[in-house]
Amino acid sequence: MSEALLSVRGLRSGYGAVEVLRGIDLDVAPGEIVALLGSNGAGKTTFNHTVSALVPARGGSIRFDGEDITGAHYRAVVGRGLLHVPEGRKVFPNLTVRENLELGSFARARARRADNLERVFSIFPRLRERSTQLAGTMSGGEQQMLAIGRGLMGEPRLLILDEPSLGLSPLLVEELFGLIGRLHAEGLAILLVEQNVAQSLEIAQRAYVLENGSVQFSGSSAELLATDRLRQAYLGV
Ligand code: ATP
C-alpha cells in the first residue's frame, strides 16, 4: 500500500463510562475504497464520528495526509478534506436543496462553490431539477443523494459514507454503487460502512471487520471472502 491518506493507530473512544473503541488500527490509502464491517453495535459509527472529530478520541492517534489531527476541531478536519456523510441523511429539512448544498462549501472550497455546485448537479440531475424544493419534502432516496452531494461540495479527499443505502430501493442502491465507483475512478478515497456487504466487498479493495470495538479482521476483500467464518457471518453463505 502507498503511504496512507488516513492512518489511525490505537484509537480509543466512548461515551461517558462506556468504552466503545478499544484500540483500532486502520489505514486508507489515497484513492482506495475501504469497507468497514461489523455487527450492530460493533462501533462503526463511533469510529466514523471519532475520526471526523464529532466524538473526541480518548487515546491513540489519527493522521490525515501526513498530519496529526487527533483532537483537532471538526472544522479543521473538514477543511483538510476529510468529510463525513452521516447515517440517516441529516439534511436541513427547512432549507432548499440548493441551500443545503451551499452549506457543504467549507472554507477551503468556498471560492469554487459555483463550480462545485455545477459538478454536483451534473452528478445528480434530480437535485438540479429540485434545487428550490425544501429538502424535507424530498423522498428518502433524494435526501440521501442530497447528503452525498453536500459532502462533495466540501471537496473531499476522503469521504466517509455511513450506511448510504439505508432505506433506498434496489434501483437506487444500484445507482448509489455506480456513483461510488465513479467517485473512486476520479481518485476519491472512500471509507464505506454498508449493510450491503456483498456489493461493498465487490467495490472495496480492502475491508476491516470490527467486533466489540476491536478489529477482528483486516485484509483484502478477496481474503475476507475466502475466510469461511467471515463469509458465513457477513454474507450468510
Ligand atoms: P450499527 O450497525 O447498529 O449502526 P455500529 O457498529 O455503528 O452499529 P455504534 O453506533 O458505534 O455501532 O455503537 C457502538 C456502541 O456504542 C453501542 O453499544 C451503542 O449503544 C453505544 N453508543 C453509541 N452512541 C452512543 C451515545 N451517544 N451514548 C452512549 N452510548 C452510545
From TrEMBL:
Annotated keywords: Amino-acid transport, ATP-binding, Cell membrane, Membrane, Nucleotide-binding, Transport
Keyword Amino-acid biosynthesis: no
Database matches in PROSITE patterns: ABC_TRANSPORTER_1, ABC_TRANSPORTER_2
One example GO MF annotation: ATP binding
Transmembrane found in the keyword field: no
Domain ABC transporter: 6-237
Single GO biological process annotation from the record: L-amino acid transport
Family: Belongs to the ABC transporter superfamily.
Name of this chain's protein: ABC transporter ATP-binding protein
